[in-house]
Design goal:
The chain has 81 residues and is α+β, with helices and mostly antiparallel strands. Helices cover 40% and strands 19% of the residues.
Length: 81
């Protein structure tokens, strides 16, 4: 199913929608079917973008791990049996 971008001529709302050949799209805001299909820009994958995404993912994982370690240490200090 293709995803298309539309702009409603009635309320100027812009949205994306999965469109089946048997369905006439309508604006989710005002229900108008007076729509203009917009030209979508393709998503580009580059080596630089991929490396940046990997680094951001690793940073999020390390931050979460650091928070777990700190919480465990605080628990151990409070519950020193």
């Amino acid at each position: 199913m293709p995803i298309f971008e539309y702009s409603c001529r009635g309320c100027a709302h812009q949205f994306e929608m999965l469109v089946l050949p048997t369905i006439t799209p309508a604006c989710p805001k005002c229900a108008s079917q007076d729509l203009e299909r917009l030209i979508s820009l393709p998503a580009l994958k580059t080596e630089d973008g991929t490396q940046r995404a990997i680094k951001q993912s690793q940073a999020r994982r390390m931050k979460g791990r650091t928070e777990e370690i700190v919480a465990q240490r605080e628990y151990e200090l409070k519950h020193d049996d």
